[in-house]
Design a protein that fits this description.
five-stranded antiparallel beta sheet; DNA-binding; 321 residues; Endonuclease Iii, domain 2
Length: 321
DNA sequence: TGACAGGGGGTGT
DNA sequence: ACACCCCCTGTC
């Protein structure tokens, strides 16, 4: 009963997400809501709705643990392509994970075994920067809330070439006419160009707190330096990180998060207070400072340290539940 | 059910 | 080391 297109709501039929191996519900949740991305929301027991760039999709776990997706019918073909990039299906995460030093590291082996199929998403670079600028001293739920407010108030409705003109959105009260209102009321995040036009005090109203100043200043900088973001994304890891760290509100941790989750740089090893505590406990690094732990991580986990970090992180979160 | 502290995945000075 | 902000969460 899952194959027919749902014409009433404008969503395409569910279909398998090619290139992503079967995963458990836990791994599914950890992938979408484990701190990599902040715009996935539950729609049911095992279904999620997510937004990135100009994409809106639903995902669910089908029988036999296969991931299935559905998109607004008008955006179907483009979404399939975007989804593939977003999930980095060009990468064999099973092989990458197997190349981590788990054979000589019992704790890592335990973490990998607990979350088989966990992967690193490849999100839009600019959006990832915005998300992690919001993340300082905030938990996932709160970050999601800030970004939802930013999108609702300052982002444009999701639309494609074939979709109705979003410029018709003069009043904030969109015409809830035929079909699923959700299809017409979900916005993408504001672009950096759009953010540069918004007063800091207005941003502050989106629960950003002291982060509003950083976001505003970063937006001003990016507006004054066209191409800077794309050049940074394309630069070698060390240079890209150095450039990101020059932005207001971006330190080593946030820069590494942006490069790991928004540029696919698996060597990036973000050290936050969670990973600090986790490594102190699991690897006997009590008292080590963040920079020392980062050095340990790179040396111990190797060139895919960021991938290893995501498993360690998932493990600690699971222990807390 | 409602009020009230406490603390939070970081950066900049 | 401490301020920056203010919402979430747990608890009474």
């Amino acid at each position: 009963m899952t194959a027919a297109p749902d014409g009433a709501t404008g969503w395409s039929a569910w279909q398998p997400l090619a290139g992503v191996p079967a995963i458990t519900s836990d791994v599914f949740t950890e992938t979408l809501d484990g701190g990599q991305a902040f715009r996935w929301h539950r729609e049911g027991d095992d279904a999620w709705r997510g937004v990135w760039a100009n994409n809106l999709v639903r995902l669910r776990l089908a029988p036999r643990d296969r991931v299935e997706w559905s998109a607004p019918i008008t955006d179907h073909d483009e979404t399939e392509h975007s989804l593939s990039a977003y999930f980095a299906t060009d990468r064999d995460f099973a092989a990458l994970t197997d190349s981590l030093p788990w054979r000589s590291d019992p704790h890592l082996a335990r973490c990998l075994a607990a979350f088989p199929g966990l992967r690193i998403l490849r999100q839009p670079f600019g959006e990832t920067l915005l998300g992690f600028l919001c993340s300082a001293t905030k938990q996932i739920v709160q970050i999601k809330q800030m970004l939802a407010l930013l999108a609702d108030r300052h982002g444009a409705p999701i639309c494609r070439a074939g979709s109705p003109d979003p410029a018709a959105r003069t009043s904030t009260q969109s015409t809830a006419g035929s079909g699923d209102p959700a299809l017409h009321s979900i916005n993408r995040l504001p672009t950096w160009a759009e953010l540069a036009q918004i007063p800091e005090t207005t941003l502050r109203d989106c629960q950003l707190g002291f982060r509003a100043k950083f976001i505003s200043q970063t937006a001003q900088f990016l507006a004054a330096h066209p191409g800077w973001l794309a050049e940074t994304e394309a630069a070698p890891y060390a240079l890209a990180k150095e450039r990101l760290c020059s932005l207001p509100g971006v330190g080593e941790k946030i820069a590494d998060c942006v490069l790991l989750f928004g540029a696919g740089r698996l060597e990036a090893f973000p050290v936050d207070t969670w990973i600090l505590k986790a490594l102190a406990r699991r690897y006997d690094l009590v008292g080590w400072k963040p920079a020392q732990v980062a050095q340990f991580g790179r040396a111990h986990f190797g060139p895919l340290a960021g991938l290893a970090q995501q498993f360690l992180f998932a493990w600690e979160r699971q222990q807390g539940r």
